[in-house]
Amino acid sequence: MWPDGLSDPVREDLRFRGRLGPPSDGSPDFTAIIQYHRFDPTVLNVELSWLGDEQERRSGYEQLHSLPYNYVWLNGTNPKAPMVELRGISGVGCEGHREIIRASAIQVNITEEIVSEDWTFHVTAQLQPSGIVIDPGVREMSYTGDIRVKRYDQRQITLSTPFGELEVAERYEHYSSSEFGDEVTHSVRRAAVSGDIVLPAGTHLYALNERLWKVLRHVCLGLTLSYRQMVRCYEVRYLPDLERRDEHPAVLPFFRCQLAHVDAKSRRDELINFGSLVDGGLERLLGALRDTPDADALARAIHFLGASYDATVETAFFMAFAAMETLVDSCVPSDNRSLLARPERELLGQKLRDALEMVADEHARRVMISRLPGFFRDSFPDKVRLACDRFGPPTKDLWPDKTFDQGLRHLNVMRNRLFHAASYDDIHDMAADLVRVRTLTERLLLKKIDWPDDRIWRWYDQNLKWLNKT
């Protein structure tokens, strides 16, 4: 169950005896083995082996395979054994007495046990990809193995949260292994959110973890927009005060999810650079994204936009256009989404239905009547124009050889052909318009959240400038 060649220093194991329910419900015992890679979030293996006689093993099998939800608690029978929640269960395989559980996340010793006094934890949340939130500097490597980093910018990215102040920065970890008979020291650099947080008396870690994850997802949203690629959090660990370490379970609380794939840091220019995220910049960005009207629509647009940067041209165009449509709908006031008020729409609609009764057959009437709601709404190019008139993003350099309206109509034709017929004339033409869709969407989004122009990375639109030179 463990990838071949994976060395012990990076393998994490949880092995314990437990049962699916509390001791009083008569559930059969099992031995659990949970394994994952310390630095690879795509690895998560969960295996249960039933104990007892044939009847007990069959009872365990039936209980596991008939779960009413996609999560289950594995409760250790030993007081020192961990309490593990498996989340996002997508399937269970059986190999003899062993159960192979496909779970998307594990939550260890994060329970609803109420604490009687305040607890302080140092929390570390690992982000993917590595290479983001790195301040400019030079790394000097010595023949002795020492690594010195000279920073050009000593400022930090910090966030004020309900739990305390958190820092978003790169973190280093080291481990040793043996390769070809040589001792090798590995240095692993990862992006992380970390800081000291307080679990107040009368509350429990389960609720705090849920609230913290909402903050972390919002941090990832802001970084996805800034770095133009999907940023995800895959692990949160809670380290208690050293003075009270003995009061905690042997396995310290953590949450870890499995990612389908990992990505390297993109080489493209950022939209918002590190220098604009320090000194409260990220906190200001997150506040603007959270407090703006239709914040959920903005979040969807950012996710579509981030995904478009890591896809083939056709898929990327689909994603980027979906981002632009989502954003534009949120920018156009609801009272501007229909060309006529409701009484006028109903009056004109009835007259059109009456006219169709006289000139069209049954099939034609049914088709045209189904299209009447769209007759009273702005077309997509019209909505883009309304959104741009309202927020004023730069548009003159998008299509130097066309007017803005001509460019939007061209985009709409390309979008309709691709979405409805999977057809296009020239992949190079689509790639060029993909740059324009992304640029317009980013500019409109930043105007909507009132992000200052001087805090946008100066080279963010280099692809558009190169495109206009060709």
Task: Provide a concise account of the structure shown.
With 470 residues, the protein is α+β, with helices and mostly antiparallel strands. Helices cover 37% and strands 26% of the residues. The protein is globular and about 80 Å long.
Structural domain count: 3
Which term fits the overall shape? Answer: globular
Q: Compute the CA-based radius of gyration.
A: 28 Å
Major beta sheet, specifics? 14 strands, antiparallel
Characterization of this structure:
By secondary structure, the chain is α+β, with helices and mostly antiparallel strands. The protein is globular. A 14-stranded antiparallel sheet has the order 6-7-3-2-1-4-5-8-16-15-9-14-13-12. Strands 10-11 form a two-stranded antiparallel sheet. The protein folds into three domains: 8-108; 119-291, no CATH class; 299-337 and 378-469, no CATH class. The two termini are 53 Å apart. Helix 2 (205-227) packs across helix 5 (295-308) and helix 6 (313-331) runs parallel beside helix 12. The chain contains 13 helices and 16 strands.
